[in-house]
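[recover] target loaded
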C-alpha cells in the first residue's frame, strides 16, 4: 500500500458584506471571506493538501485567481476537479484532517454538515 500525505495552508481576509463559506456550507456570520472564488478556505486547504500529496503543484496553479473562469466559483467544483485529477493519476482519497482557526463564528455546530458535504465530493 502506498500512502501519501499532503499539507495545505490558506488564509483569507474577513470583511463585512462577504459570505462565509466553510467546507461547502454557508455559515451565518457578520464577516465573510474575501477571495476570487467563493473563498472557502477549508476546501482550498483540502485541495492544496491533496494536490501536494500527489505532487501536482497547488490550487493556484490549477485554478489561478487571474482567470475569469474561476471568479466567484463554488469551491466544491474545484475540489471535485482536484479529486478527478487524482483519480486520473491513480490516487484515491483515504482520509482528510483539517483544522480551522477562527475566533467567530463557532464552527462546531456546522461540522457534521461540512463532513457530509465534503464526503460526497471526495
Amino acid at each position: 500500500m502506498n500512502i501519501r500525505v499532503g499539507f495545505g495552508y490558506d488564509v483569507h481576509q474577513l470583511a463585512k458584506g462577504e459570505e462565509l463559506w466553510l467546507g461547502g456550507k454557508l455559515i451565518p456570520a457578520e464577516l465573510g471571506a474575501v477571495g476570487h472564488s467563493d473563498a472557502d478556505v477549508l476546501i482550498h486547504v483540502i485541495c492544496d493538501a491533496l494536490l501536494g500529496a500527489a505532487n501536482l503543484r497547488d490550487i493556484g496553479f490549477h485554478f489561478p485567481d487571474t482567470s475569469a473562469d474561476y471568479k466567484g466559483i463554488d469551491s466544491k467544483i474545484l475540489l471535485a476537479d482536484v479529486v478527478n485529477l487524482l483519480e486520473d493519476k491513480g490516487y484515491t482519497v483515504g482520509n482528510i484532517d483539517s483544522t480551522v482557526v477562527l475566533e467567530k463564528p463557532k464552527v462546531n455546530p456546522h461540522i457534521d454538515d461540512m463532513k457530509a458535504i465534503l464526503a460526497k465530493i471526495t
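[recover] notes: Strands lie at 14-16, 20-22, 25-27, 31-33.
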